[in-house]
Amino acid sequence: QARNSEKAQSMLFRFREQQAADLGIIDAGRTRRPKIITEQTSIPSCEKWRGQVVKEISRKVSKIQDPSLSDYQIRDLNDEINKLMREKHMWEVQLRNLGGPNYMRFGPRMYDEDGREVPGSKGYKYFGRARELPGVKELFEELKPKTDEQKEKELKLKREARKTVDADYYGFNRDEENGVLLEYERRKEEEAREVMSAKAKAEGDGSDGWVGVPEWRVPTPDEVMEFLVERRKSRLLTKLG
């Protein structure tokens, strides 16, 4: 019973502390931030929690510049910053829904401490040294807008390629019509037959070891329909019998 009493006192203390934070009586930084943001209905409280998140983001953005951090630490820190950015956005959405300040009207662009826009794909950004991580730097190089000189160089390469590409490249050759390809295939077939025959003789097999490809006749639509009708009739008779 003593433990239950202590637990109740602890819960009551946290409730009153949260209530006091909502009213602005104590510093929100001393209390744990609520996880369910949509349940917070006090504008001053939401303002304080958002401010706390902004301070955390600022500290971590400064920390990610540390040259002593490993690549793994930088990745983890960048993930934490992005998580805090999403939480900040949720507080701003709740503030707007409650009729408070609309921080979202300033747009989604973000800038680092040097005044440069933070690069990254939609929804995920790279801060500080995270931009120098293996694979990330190359990615942003590819995403950079191409200069007029680069565009002209690409067009020139395409024009040069078109000059050397003919119908043969796309498979529209005339070898079968003039007999060149057919003659080449006939010679290769004869060579393969001779190799198979010599191999069969060496192994003491009476046959030449060559089996021709059977000629298949494609049935007509009427024959296919007749086959399907007969099969269906046979199944019905089996069920009735």
UniProtKB/TrEMBL annotation:
Residues 196-215 are annotated as: Disordered. Its main location: nucleus. It is found in: Nucleus. Gene3D superfamilies: Helix hairpin bin (1.10.287.660). GO terms for biological process: generation of catalytic spliceosome for second transesterification step. The keyword Nucleus applies. GO terms for cellular component: post-mRNA release spliceosomal complex; Prp19 complex; U2-type spliceosomal complex. The keyword Nucleus applies. Transmembrane segments: none annotated. Keywords: mRNA processing, mRNA splicing, Nucleus, Spliceosome. Belongs to the ISY1 family. Involved in pre-mRNA splicing. PANTHER family: PRE-MRNA-SPLICING FACTOR ISY1. This is Pre-mRNA-splicing factor isy-1. It comes from Ascodesmis nigricans. The lineage of its organism: Eukaryota, Fungi, Dikarya, Ascomycota, Pezizomycotina.
